[in-house]
Amino acid sequence: MDFLISMFNSLPGVAAEGLFYGIFALGVYITYKILDVADLTVDASIVTGCAVTTICILYGVNSLVAVFIAFLAGMIAGALTGFFHTFLKIPAILAGILSQFSLYTINMIIMGMQSYLDTTGTTKALIPMSPTAYASVSKFSLIVSSRDKISAMVVGFVFVIAIIALLYWFFGTEFGCSLRATGANPKMARAQGINTNFATVFGLMFSNGFVALAGGLLAQYTGGSNITFGAGAIVIGLASVVIGEVLCSAFFKKGANFAVRLTFVVVGSLIYSLIKRFVINVGLDTNFLKLISAVIVAIFLSAPNFKNSFVRKGTKKGA
Amino acid sequence: MLELKNVCKTFYAGTVNERVALNDVSLTLSDGDVVTIIGGNGAGKSTLLNMVSGTLPVDAGQVLIDGVDITNYPEHKRAKFLGRVFQDPMTGTAASMGIDENLALALRRGKHRGLGWGITKKERAEFSKRLEEFGLGLESRITAKVGLLSGGQRQVLTLLMATLKKPKLLLLDEHTAALDPKTAKIVLEATDKIIREDNLTAMMITHNMHDAITYGNRLIMMMDGRIIYDVAGEEKKSLTVPDLLKKFEEYSGGSFANDRMMLSK
């Protein structure tokens, strides 16, 4: 009973976090599902978003504006991957790893070149390259904060709705369609006059923009920026995308509208956060989460293949 | 309208696998020319088309369309002038997008793609009308994903996409080779109809010598990266398959018995 009560009490926090990670997952969806590129940049660009937002706020920038600046910073991070991938012709996965690696340093510079503030707001000496460089924003006015989980949930919800609407509109435009065509069949796209390199770079920028925006919201929610924050984030993003997709195809057997599919990505993220909270409340070490996440992603990614091979076996028996 | 000047292309240059695909090829097409291209495997037919479409860069030489040197244009920029249908039915369309969305993409070939709607109601109605002409029933399932269509249906769709915005030049790279004979015939007839109605200039690679003779006003035979025979007008009309076989033998020293050409008289 105590367990249920503690689960219930944590629901607003779960929802808020799930919604912020939902924005992150929507960014992953753009590259993974629409552009057909597994972009590993996100592990670092989410931290870029955290770092930029934190620094902006420490410098007195309005916390909402700070999140949009994070969006722009994320776009630059995506452009870096795009440059590696299209201009230097490095395979997408490696291009993502390379910019993830470079961004680690850049994130450290963003966070470390400035003196940082700890939770009490006293200025401390700069510790360059410290893996725990942590700047707190808790004494500033923020659009979301873990101090008020209900309003954080509402803000997260508003952001999610606005972003889904924006994506729905964008991928229906001529330019958005050219991005979809690039992901679906680049040869065909080029034959129809689409500059697939430009489309890919823009898609990566757009995606990482939302990833960094999610980072900006999470930085405010958790009270600061931490360099190790993004490690393995891609797996959380993929978990949300695949959980959402499986549920969506279960509810809408004949295929769903694009906005519905995007909504299910966020639903996937909410479910992921719930699982995460469950693991924590059960008393498991949170370090188990990574293994559990990997297993979840592996199961959901492989489920369609297994299903097909079982069906095939079944028909053979019947025949 | 199309001019190829001394185009050369070698694959794997400087290695043991070095293969000369095009050896100093020059070719001029006039407006309204419909050229069929035949030749054995590795003769350079597809490479010739790829040089025009910009899929691969030329090693040397020039490509001009209507006097404009497009040699250094990237593939997507050349698409403005070209309609293309490929051998593999999967290549020409986006499987995960709707029939209507594919056509809408093709309608915007050569135009700036901005933030206007990617497809409008009016366009969808227009696409239905155009699809109806082919009698494949595609007009009634216009929002269906292209991945659900058969190979033949996809080739017809690609053909319509290639010609929806009238191209200066239509490139057909063995576009019926992957289809069954009956479907191939339907697609070929549809191609012929569109070329006639829109008065298009076209290049068509085929392995079927009979088709090469029947269609078009000009025929090119290629071997070892060169154009070895180029015939047009009345002389082309009076050609027969045995004539072509004899030509082949003449140039190859009678050693092409294993070639795929033999199989599709």
List the helices and strands and how they pair.
The complex is a heterodimer of chains A (319) and B (265).
Chain A lengths: L1 H8 L1 H24 L7 H17 L4 H25 L4 H21 L21 E3 L12 H22 L3 H11 L1 H6 L4 H27 L1 E3 L6 H19 L6 H25 L5 H31 L1
Antiparallel strand pairs in A: 1-2
Helix pairs in contact in A: 2-6, 2-9, 2-10, 2-11, 3-4, 3-5, 3-9, 4-5, 4-9, 6-11, 7-9, 10-11, 10-12
Chain B lengths: L1 E10 L7 E11 L4 E6 L5 H9 L6 E6 L2 E2 L5 H4 L3 E4 L13 H9 L13 H12 L18 H14 L4 E5 L7 H18 L3 E4 L3 H6 L3 E6 L2 E7 H5 L3 H12 L13
Helix pairs in contact in B: 3-5, 5-6
Give an overview of the whole structure.
The complex is a heterodimer of chains A (319) and B (265). Chain A has 319 residues and is mainly alpha-helical. Chain A has a two-stranded antiparallel sheet with strand order 1-2. In chain A, helix 2 (11-34) packs across helix 10 (233-251), helix 4 packs antiparallel against helix 5 and helix 6 packs antiparallel against helix 11. Chain A has twelve helices and two strands, in the order αααααβααααβααα. Chain A has a single domain (11-314), classed as ABC transporter involved in vitamin B12 uptake, BtuC. Chain A has helices spanning 2-9, 11-34, 42-58, 63-87, 92-112, 149-170, 174-184, 186-191, 196-222, 233-251, 258-282, 288-318; strands at residues 134-136, 224-226. Chain B is globular, with a radius of gyration of 19 Å. With 265 residues, chain B is of the alpha/beta class. In chain B, strand 7 (169-173), helix 6 (181-198) and strand 8 form a beta-alpha-beta unit. Chain B folds into two domains: 2-81 and 170-264, Rossmann fold, CATH 3.40.50; 93-166, no CATH class. Chain B is built from nine helices and ten strands. The two termini of chain B are 31 Å apart. Helices cover 34% and strands 23% of the residues of chain B. The model of chain B has no long low-confidence stretch (mean pLDDT 91). In chain B, strands 6-7-8-3-9-10 form a six-stranded mixed β-sheet, with helices on both faces. The interface between A and B is medium-sized, with 22 and 34 residues.
